[in-house]
Amino acid sequence: MICWSNDLLESGVLPVVHGRAGLALALTLLLAGPLAGAPQKPPKGFTSLFNGRDLSGWRGRQQDYSPYEEAKLTQDDLAAKQVQWNADRDAHWRVDAAKKEIVSDGRGVFLATNKDYADFELYVDWLMVEHNGDSGVYLRGFPQVQVWDPDNPKELRNGADKGSGALWNNNPDNPGRWPLVKADKPVGEWNTFRIRMAGSKVSIWLNGQQTVDGQVMDNYFDRTKPVLPSGPIELQTHGSEIRFRNIYVREIKSGS
């Protein structure tokens, strides 16, 4: 007999099951990733970053904008830029409220949390709508947990065939640059990331399989320094329609 914890059942991560068929379904969902399937409720201890209705809590942010450059802006200059960025956000990002999904058309600014995060654990589902797509999740404003089509012929030279779920912008000699396993589902199916960032080290799971195991994330904007201790979580847009849902975060104490 297998017994699920009350936390998992109450959170909606696993369904209440009855009989062999129900048990098989629950096992399939668990192995595929804790948040695979339809929209869910946050697991215990996690907060939802997306309300399913609108982009409250999210701002537009210029693509690959250095946090060091942003820190140099006066409050008035940043406010003026933010107005422009949010207008661009509204032109290229939308919410499919019927499906409770965030939709990017592949152009324009990135979508960043209003709040900055230090150490955290994140769940996010993503769907590549068509082949040859490209996207990612930025951590503290730094690129990135890579999302791409492993069969994209134009990206094979960049290592796309190794799969999504690694820190592609890391230095070439950093093992976190490539995933430990190829865990992507076919294009057109939902995938689930679980990402844990503590200090400069990142661990990543894609569809329940670990792709990065506690590797340092290199500083894309200044490779002589570690990444900053806090910053926004960003969803990247990069030339193709990508959808996101079930975005949950849990802040964790430093060193835990």
List the helices and strands and how they pair.
Elements: H1 6-11, H2 19-32, E1 47-48, E2 58-61, H3 67-72, H4 75-92, E3 93-96, E4 101-104, E5 110-113, E6 120-128, E7 134-139, E8 142-148, E9 190-198, E10 201-206, E11 209-216, E12 234-237, E13 242-251
Antiparallel strand pairs: 1-13, 2-5, 3-4, 4-13, 5-12, 6-9, 6-13, 7-8, 7-12, 9-10, 10-11
Structure description:
- The chain is an alpha+beta fold.
- Helix content is 17%, strand content 30%.
- The strands form two sheets. Strands 1, 3, 4, 6, 9, 10, 11 and 13 form an eight-stranded antiparallel beta sheet that branches. Strands 2-5-12-7-8 form a five-stranded antiparallel beta sheet.
- The longest helix is centred in the first third of the chain and has 18 residues, at 75-92.
Strand element count: 13
What class do helices, strands and sheet pairing give? alpha+beta
- Encode the helix/strand succession as letters: HHEEHHEEEEEEEEEEE
Beta-strand content estimate:
25-35%
